[in-house]
């Protein structure tokens, strides 16, 4: 999926170079033409639906943006309010069955969210150690991580 999206971006930039008009409209037209070509390629080669893959990626970005906004507001409130409500905890989170690229993407996604940080991975590469600022309920925190992992695997990596 990632290489198809990068190919689509390259085709849009190539279209801009061929037309000679570096405007947003030309980029959008080039991107749509590239998407059409890639969609036809995917149908002929029976490798899935490119628009469906892009839609799933957009859904994940929307999901992650929502999480990011909520976490930023929570941390901002913590900084601005005189009362501290932090309940920090280190969680051991299983990543068995994931490839190194998938583990890295999950770890970076977790670390990008304010209030969480992927601190370490064990020697086997089977567990991440994650520091969370707001982990009063361990099971709820693990469910939140499971949801991020599930959405990442289904919408980005399509497993």
From TrEMBL:
The chain crosses the membrane at residues 12-42, 54-77. InterPro entries: Cation_antiport_E. This is Na+/H+ antiporter subunit E. Keywords: Cell membrane, Membrane, Transmembrane, Transmembrane helix. It comes from Natronomicrosphaera hydrolytica. The lineage of its organism: Bacteria, Pseudomonadati, Planctomycetota, Phycisphaerae, Phycisphaerales. Coiled coil: none annotated. Its main location: membrane. It is a multi-pass membrane protein. Belongs to the CPA3 antiporters (TC 2.A.63) subunit E family. Pfam families: MNHE (PF01899).
